[in-house]
Design a protein that fits this description.
73% helix; mainly alpha
Length: 124
């Protein structure tokens, strides 16, 4: 978690705003995947989906909120991270007005990442 935070800061300093935005989404996805494996969450959640199935970031965020890993503030922050990460998809850039990834957007996603991590640390 700390390594990802450091990488996001490097992206900010390097003005690699798109990369930093993608990294925040990838970091949250990775952390949640590790969480369901490490704590055997699927047995507690009685979820129909198996660990070996593909989990979307949306599904992981919803599960984390349902199981109490995320408080509501962290849930909303994770959703913002997911939505901005999805804007990087080539289909969005093919449209008329692609999203602009600026320093302020990355700083906001970094704050969202910190909110998510704080919630996880309170859980663990």
């Amino acid at each position: 978690m700390n390594r990802c935070r450091a990488e996001i800061k490097i992206c900010e300093r390097s003005k690699a705003y798109v990369a930093g935005t993608v990294l925040t989404g990838a970091a949250v996805e990775y952390i949640l995947t590790v969480w369901i494996r490490a704590f055997d969450i699927l047995n507690y959640a009685k979820h129909r989906k198996k660990l070996t199935d593909h989990w979307s970031l949306k599904e992981l965020i919803d599960l984390a909120y349902q199981q109490g890993l995320f408080d509501f503030k962290a849930f909303r922050a994770a959703e913002r991270i997911r939505k901005f990460r999805n804007l990087v998809h080539p289909n969005w850039f093919a449209g008329r007005k692609p999203a602009r990834f600026t320093k302020h957007v990355l700083e906001a996603r970094h704050r969202d990442y910190d909110t998510v991590i704080d919630s996880i640390q309170r859980y663990i």
